[in-house]
Amino acid sequence: MTDSTTDSTTGTDTPDKLVVLDMAGTTVADGGLVERAFEQAAARLGVEPGTPAHAEKLQYVRDTMGESKISVFRHLFGTEERARLANSAFEEAYAELVDGGLVAPLPGARAAIEELRAAGHTVVLTTGFARVTQDAILDALGWQGLADLTLCPADAGGRGRPYPDMVLTAFLRTGAVADVRDTVVAGDTAYDMLSGRRAGAGTVAGVLTGAHDRATLAGHGATHVLGSVAELPALLASPTPLAEPS
């Protein structure tokens, strides 16, 4: 890979970037499947829908969108055994829903990934789900091979967002850039923003197609807030200097 590409419209050199993209809510629309799968998993552990305990746990799931799911279940169910049981039940339920055709690419997401790669950038897709679920989503969308690399928390030593581990694993595995500040992180949650900032990414872009709003994304470190990931190629191609993290 070369050190830069030339923007055909401006004639300016644009440094190649490592672009780390979240999946659900950022590039993939899952139609609320996380909540539906959680309800099935919680029921298996005796948490009945309509109870105060169920409402409290569901709200926590909403508040922690973007975090590794096993970490969420450790918090909710206390013991490692119960957390792993809940996580397995969640992954099984989510996979069944995915097989039912209930996931779809967000508008412009595939084209954005293809455009980024055509411009010389390296694209990595990341998720808080387990590998089996990530692969089920990629298979359902026909996205296997779309990105340069795909990562889940287990690929990064087991820690997902808000830790920086997946971003740094992408940096180390791809060798796409020499400086971590040439990494771009994009996601729809506060945890995506925290993960990118903690990894030292130079650009941390929030998108408004998922869990969190502009204020939440900005408040957790977004250097840019975009309407959708479809706007990311234009942002990186712009000759205007990107905003520095505050």
Automatic annotation (TrEMBL):
Coiled-coil regions listed: none
Pfam families according to UniProt: Hydrolase (PF00702)
Entry superkingdom: Bacteria
Protein name, entry field: Phosphonatase-like hydrolase
